[in-house]
Design goal:
The chain crosses the membrane at residues 65-83, 103-127, 189-207, 246-263, 275-294, 306-327. The chain is mostly helical. 71% of the residues lie in helices and 2% in strands. The chain has 14 helices and 2 strands. α2 (42-91) packs antiparallel against α3 and α5 (188-194) packs antiparallel against α10 (243-268). It is elongated and about 120 Å long.
Length: 418
């Protein structure tokens, strides 16, 4: 209470803003654009990072083991297929249709099918492991989020390529030969040739066992620089380090596969008396691989023609690689180019000095000859004056060409910045 009898405690202050405006502004002021998260302790973050690194290491080891299993199953299936085909070749003269139904043939094909099934399972697990690695790197839980359409396409193609093999039994179809004769033939020959496409797994095996992939520092650098270490990266690195060995191994492998495929096609789909022997198949594959083609031997089946086309393409690719390596080997190195340019500059400098000296010398001689000819105009003096004038012109021309050549060498030489 005051002296005037007015209760000041009951007085209310007048707001500067309206209540409605105050509510709206306070609502916007209280909003936060970024939700606050509790700060993780450094030790907790380190433990999570260490667990992620350890899990990634285990996944890489699992993928390496799966690739080893894939290549092992592929090689086992190819070996069993080759053994079954060789048994067929041995008995083809006596029983061309009975051998495919024998117990030995059925057992070999059964084990080939089992190895193929294990190979397909290993391929699926390999792609699953790759998806888990990408999920760990991207910190996501959905495998579909890190799997692109190209990955699905690669998986389907690999399953189709590796699933081809001679299945147990005797599958025969009618096929028209080159001569126009329709006959009942086995499909095992085509399946056996197509099984050789499994050898692409050798490249994947070399990639997972390469130091470029197993080294943690290399993985870190590739992740930072967004460079994918795959089969092509390892192949280019091997070509840079050991070009001769890589090309020799590649050409020998392609040639061996083409020889076996040519022999298989000729023995399966022609009569024994008309089929090419092993030496003839080697000669035919060699002249096709080298793109020579003498014409003394030609394939007698459609399968053989297909193998010839593939062999020719592989020969062209190998020849291109060989030419590139040879051109790189005969190219001058940095030191060789520097020494060559330095010696060229010294030679051109000496040549230019000699030409300049000749210009001065023949200028004096031509002036003296001209003065002598003016005093005593004889035929010999005129010939001498023309000869000296011609020598002077040649000296001037040589000095100019030498100067231009020196400028070209200086432009092509290695500078300090290089």
């Amino acid at each position: 209470m005051t002296s005037n009898g007015i209760d000041t405690s009951s007085e209310q202050s007048i707001p500067l803003f309206q209540d409605k405006l105050r509510d709206s502004t306070s609502r916007y002021v209280d909003m936060t654009l970024i939700t606050e998260r509790p700060m993780e302790h450094r030790s907790t973050f380190t433990k999570k990072l260490g667990a992620r690194i350890e899990l990634r290491k285990q996944l890489l080891l699992r993928r390496k083991w799966l690739v080893d299993m894939m290549l092992s199953m592929a090689v086992v299936g190819i070996i069993l297929m080759i053994v079954e085909n060789e048994l067929y070749y041995l008995n083809v003269a006596d029983a061309i249709k009975k051998e495919k139904k024998t117990t030995v043939s059925m057992i070999l094909k059964l084990f080939t099918t089992i190895s193929t099934c294990l190979l397909l399972v290993a391929i699926c697990l390999y792609y699953r492991t790759g998806a888990e690695i990408r999920m760990l790197d991207a910190r996501v839980d959905d495998p579909l989020a890190v799997t692109s359409m190209s990955t699905w396409f690669s998986l389907i193609v690999e399953l189709l390529v590796c699933a081809v093999h001679p299945i147990p039994g005797d599958i025969q179809v009618y096929m028209t030969t080159i001569t126009g004769i329709t006959d009942l033939v086995h499909m095992d020959g085509i399946f056996s040739v197509l099984m050789m496409f499994r050898l692409y797994l050798i490249g994947r095996f070399l990639v997972v066992h390469s130091p470029l992939l197993t080294d943690p520092s290399t993985q870190t650098i590739s992740a930072v620089s967004h460079v994918k270490i795959d089969m092509f990266f390892v192949f280019k690195a091997a070509m840079a380090d050991h070009p001769g060995q890589v090309i020799a191994f590649t050409m020998l492998s392609m040639y061996s596969v083409s020889v076996w495929a040519m022999r298989t096609c000729e023995l399966y789909y022609t009569h024994l008396s008309q089929a090419h022997s092993l030496t003839q198949s080697m000669w035919l594959a060699a002249i096709t691989f080298l793109t020579v083609g003498y014409g003394d031997l030609t394939p007698r089946t459609h399968c053989g023609r297909f193998i010839s086309v593939v062999t020719g393409l592989m020969g062209l690719a190998s020849t291109a690689l060989l030419v590139a390596v040879v051109a790189k080997k005969i190219e001058q190195s940095r030191s060789d180019k520097y020494v060559y340019n330095y010696l060229s500059l010294i030679h051109l400098q000496c040549k230019r000095k000699n030409a300049a000296a000749d210009v001065i010398k023949f200028s004096i001689k031509a002036f003296s000859a001209k003065k002598t000819h003016s005093q005593e105009p004889t035929h010999s003096h005129r010939i001498n004056m023309r000869y000296l004038s011609w020598k002077l012109s040649n000296a001037i021309r040589s000095m100019r060409s030498t100067r231009a050549a020196r400028q070209r060498v200086e432009e092509a030489s290695v500078g300090l910045t290089d």
